[in-house]
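Annex B. Sample input.
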Amino acid sequence: MEKERILYPSYFNGALKRSEGRRVPQSLAQKGVLLGDLERAVKKSGLTGRTEQNPHPAFWARHEGRVVVPWDQSKEVLLRTVAAHLEVKR
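Annex B, continued. Sample output.
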């Protein structure tokens, strides 16, 4: 049975401090990450995921949404895998 991991755009946002929700190193982070950017990065990583409009529990006022990805390994490996494929297009 595969476990599911939840990814929020704030995990990858370089404009945020770690205490504000960023989970990847600054070298892998990008500014202004939105749900669509995260969804594209998950697909480029060769993973499947579903998008939900639920906010992060600690930062509920942001209403940024999330992507739920089936993943058996550690969440840190998943974060780095997705961050390597993240491109913010504006």
